[in-house]
Each structure stands twice: as C-alpha cells, then as structure tokens.
Amino acid sequence: MTREAAPVRAPRLPPDPLAVGFPDAMRAEWVKLRSLRSTYWSLLAGAVLVVGLGAVFAAAYGSYYQSASPSERATFDPTTISLSGVWFGQLAVGVLGVLTITAEYASGTIRPSLAAVPRRGRMLAAKAAVFAAVTLLVGEAASFAAFFVGQPILALKAPHASIGDADVLRAVTGAGLYLAALAVFSVAIGTFIRHTAGAVTAMVAVVFAVPTVLGALPASWQRAIAQWLPTNAGSSLWTVQRPAHTFPAWTGFGVFLGYTAAMLVLTFALFARRDA
Amino acid sequence: MIEICNLTKRFGPVTAVDDLSFAVLPGRVTGFLGPNGAGKTTTMLTILGLERPDRGDARIAGRRYRDLPVPLREVGSLLDANSVHGGRRASDHLRYLAESNRIPARRIDEVMGMVGLADVARRRVKGFSLGMRQRLGIAAALLGDPPVLMFDEPINGLDPEGILWIRTLMRDLATEGRTVLFSSHLISEVALAADHLVVIGKGRLIADTTVQEFIRSGSQRPVLVRAPRAGELAERLRRAGAEVVVVDDGAIRVTGMESPAIGDVAAGEGIALHELNTEQASLEEAFMELTRGSVEFHAHGVGDRAGEGR
Predict the structure, then answer these.
(1) Closest Cα in chain B, distance from residue A133 (Å)
(2) Which residue from A5, A13, A103 is facing B103, i.e. has the nearest CB?
(3) Which of A125, A157, B54, B209 is surrounded by the most beta carbons within 10 Å?
C-alpha cells in the first residue's frame, strides 16, 4: 500500500448524465461476471462436460447399437445422444448462476451493488440478462462442438445425423437456448434462497434429484409427472426423436420458460421488498 | 443534505431505530455517535434504501435514495469495508460501480490515487488488510464525486496515520461544501473529527448539537477549591446557592456555581484561595451520562455470572 495519499481535491467529473438505466446496469453486471475467475472455470468446466461427455455417450451408444433391439433402433436419436453432455454441463451453468447472486450476499457486495443500482428489479434483470447472454454464447458453441464431435464417433458403428436433417439444427441450437433459460432459472433460485449451499442444493434437486426420485415411482405416475418437470420439459427442445409422454419441442421449452418466468416473478417480488 | 424524518425500523420484537429525526447539513462534518447496537448502521442502511423503514423516511436533497437518477453522483457511501468480493481486483470493484452510474474509467485511477491504493489497484482484494479495504471503500464512496458522503465506522482498522488521513479527508470534503456524515462508537475520535454531533442510543435521538455544547450539557462541571478556611467558605457558598461536598480538610468540591463566582464569594469574605480548579468533564463522561440506560449490551463483571450454568 502506498503510504502517501495524494491530495484530496479531485478534478470535477464531466456533467452528470440525466439518469442511468438498464444498459448501465447490464454493463456493471458484465464487469462483475468477467472480473471473477470462477466464471471462466465454471463455463470452461460446463463446456468440457457438454463436449467431452457427449463424445463418451456417442462412443457408448454407438457400440450398444450393434446389440440393440429393433424398437431401440427405431427410436435411435443420434443428435440427442451427442448432446447428452448437456445433462451434466448444465450443472456448471446452474451453480454459476446461483453464485452470481449468492456470492453477492456472502461477500456483502450486494450492498454496494444496490447502492449503485437502487432499482432492485433493474439490477436483478440486468444480472439475469447478462448471465443468460454469456451462457447462450458458450452453450451454443459447446452444443455445436458436441454435435460435430459426436456424430463422427457414432458414425463408426451406428447411424448418425447431419446438421441438415429434419429438426437437427433446431435441436442443436435448442440445447444452447435451454442452457440460457436454465441460467435465468438459476439466478432466480439463487436470489430466492440467497445462501450458496442451499441454493446449489435446490438447483441440483431440480436438475437431478427430482427426476431420479421420480424413477422410483410407478410407471403410470412417471408418465403423468415426468414431462412436467422443468428440465425434462425444457429438454424436449434438444430432442429430435420425441419419446412417448413428452411434450413437443417448443411446447416443452415453453413449459420450462413458464417455470422460469414464475420463479423470476416470485423472486422479483421478494427481492424488491427484502432488506439487503 | 440528509433529512431523517420519524424513522422507525423494527426487527421482530427489537426496535432498532425508534422515531428518529435529524438533519445532516452541508459544509460540516457530522459525527454519528452511539454505543454498539444503537441503530447507527440501520439508520445508514435505511438512508440508502437498503433496509425498508417501518415508518418515516430518509431523504437526500428532498428525494428518496431509490429515486435518485444517478445515485453514486449524489451520495457516496462506505458501509462495511469487507463488502468486497475477495476474488475481484480492487480496480474491478470500482469499475462495475463506475459503469452502473456512467462514471468515466479514468476516475477509477484518480480515486485510487487519492486513497493511496494506486500501486495495488490490480491486486485481488482477498490479500488486502482491513485498512486497505477501508481505503478501497472510501475510494468507492468518492467515485461519483458526490455532494453527500456517508461513512459507517470509517476509522475501524486504520493505523494512526490512516486515522489522521481520514480525519483530514472528511474535513476537506466538508470545506468543499459537501455533506459529510460518519458514524463511530469511539467518542474521542468523533470529538476530533466532527464539528457537529448526532448522538443516538437504543434507536432514539439523544443529542443533536455541537461537540462543545454536548460536553457542556452532558454534565455539570464541578469546581475543586482548596482554601485554608474551607469550612467557612463552604458555608458561604451554600448560602449563595451552590452545592458543596467536603473532599477533605481544606478541600471542597462545588457544583452549581462557576469558578469566577466562587472566587468573588471568597474575595468578598476575605478568604484566601490556594486552588480554584474547574474539573474538565470529558466527552466520555458526557457520553456515558447521556446514554446511560440506552446501552444495548451492558458488560457484566465475571462475578455476575457466578452460579449460572454453562
């Protein structure tokens, strides 16, 4: 630390803007996001999981295809198989999304943040928008990479898809969109719960635990409930061969967006009222 | 100018701020004084819109904080110096604040220079001492060059040189015509740094006055008198309306009459005085006197706990 502080009297700033708004809040959130190393590590981990596990699944399913039953062969979905890593990569997005807000509570930066942007809805919307935009870019890049890495691996032993096939481009693009929506969902959960551990647990529960627990229920219940689970509904968008008892692609994604919107509205209402 | 009007804030059954009203005027340093738990921080958080009052409100230049169009250019605040993400570089902490209020980036270097952190601006905050964090928090407060500044316990963690620096800084900011409010539970610090005092205890206003006035009003200053004929003098003074306590043979303590009047009485009676000494009431004494009964956490001697189970 420099011991001698310079004289206090400061040169005047240029004239005040009349008001600051949403774009300024977004620029601030962008600085916050890119100034932490955890952002880079989490997104890198997410991308590696999407692409790497996509390749592993492609290899495994490719081998399995040889011994698959005719009905299994009929519903074989090379696009979705190569995107399987999204199920795991989404955890990195979810955890990072939770952290963008819980880390503010944990470190106390929520106070200077809200002193700088006292309109709380604006601050939260800017945070969600910036993180969703970054996730969309990384998610699309990872999804396309997973597709183009996975298909040649599948092609060794099984049918494969090409990007021009029906619904394939929608599914690959959809995986990135799904991750971006999940980004907003996770920011909302983080804001709702405020504590990192609790919010990460909730996130994992929504993404993993609930679908797993559901697997233990009777089949008839599963059929009724499974498609309504947020991530199951959302995953319809990155599926080409639609399995029985699932939503059509955009309907399913719409359901997921509905959950996200509901979570956001609830969170906005709470966040606007709570003491920071 | 900051105006607090009938502010009340409860946390469950605890009333942290109780119908508090005062104004902080520009051009002078106002010390915000009170024992721990008196409600100083809660009041400041409410001014910034970070906590919602149950009743009353706080206004800056007539507006609520959340209605300020460019808040950081109107109010600079340091709350908790530790409210910084350790993984972020010091300059990035200021950068996001600057971006949010459209403050040019060169201003970040300026304020870093002003607080003496220019050399460590690119370092991550987790390696900073409390004193460095205080300076970073002050840099953040100065970022928008605001006419109103508010510091919560700015002296915490600073070394003597740092304390002198912040004192001078606040003085300079006030001289420039700004409104400066800082809180402290250290009375002596407030006496040195502030022109004006707002004292609260248990969330209520106890005093809103100058430092000198506060000391005067807080306690009556007794006068110690030594005289060979002390007993006789005591009698005369009592008759003149003073309260007199005999300290020992030849010394009395007089209250309710100031030393010139005592001297006059003695002269009138032809009594020689060997000592006539107004005992200085310290700011501490005045503070203790005024906040008695409004201290949230009393210290108890070890003996008080005897017999209590663990």
Answers:
(1) 18
(2) A13
(3) A125
Say whether B65 and A118 touch across the interface (CB within 8 A): yes
Give the pLDDT of residue B253.
87
Residue A172 lies in a domain: yes
User: B256: how many CB neighbours lie within 10 A of its CB?
Assistant: 14
Rg (CA), chain B: 25
Structural domains present in chain B: 2-217 (3.40.50.300), 220-280 (3.30.70.100)
Domain count, chain A: 1
Q: Return the H-helix or E-strand segment holding A155.
A: helix A120-155
Q: Are the C-beta atoms of B119 and A1 separated by less than 8 Å?
A: yes
| Window B:129-148, CB contacts with A under 8 Å | 129, 131-132, 135, 140, 142, 144-145
Using a CB-CB distance cutoff of 8 angstroms, which residues of chain A are in contact with residue B107? 13
pLDDT of residue B250: 84
Model confidence over B152-182: pLDDT tens digits?
999 988 899 999 999 999 999 999 999 999 9
Per the listing, tokens 């996975």 go with A150
The contacts of residue A269 (CB under 8 Å, 6+ apart) are none
In a domain, A129, yes or no: yes
Write out pLDDT tens, residues B99-155. 999 999 999 999 999 999 999 999 999 999 999 999 999 999 999 999 999 999 999
Which candidate in A18, A107, A119 is best for mutational testing of the B interface (most B CBs within 10 A)?
Answer: A107
Chain A residues with CB under 8 Å of B111 CB are 10
Q: Which among B45, B165, B176 is the nearest to A5, CB-wise?
A: B165
Beginning with the edge strand found earlier in the chain, give each strand of the sheet holding B196-201 in spatial order.
Answer: B75-78, B148-152, B179-184, B29-33, B196-201, B204-210
Chain B residue with CA closest to A37: the answer is B87
Q: Inform me whether the pLDDT recorded for B276 exceeds 70.
A: yes
Q: Which of residues 4-63 of A touch B (CB under 8 A)?
A: 4-14, 16-20, 24-25, 27-32, 35-38
Higher pLDDT, residue B106 or B191: B106
A102 near A131, Cβ under 8 Å? Answer: no
Answer whether residue A250 is part of any domain: yes
| Total count of residues recorded for chain A | 276
Q: Do A35 and B89 touch (CB under 8 A)?
A: yes
Report the complex ipTM: 0.89
Give the range of the structural domain holding residue A59, as residue numbers without chain letter.
37-273
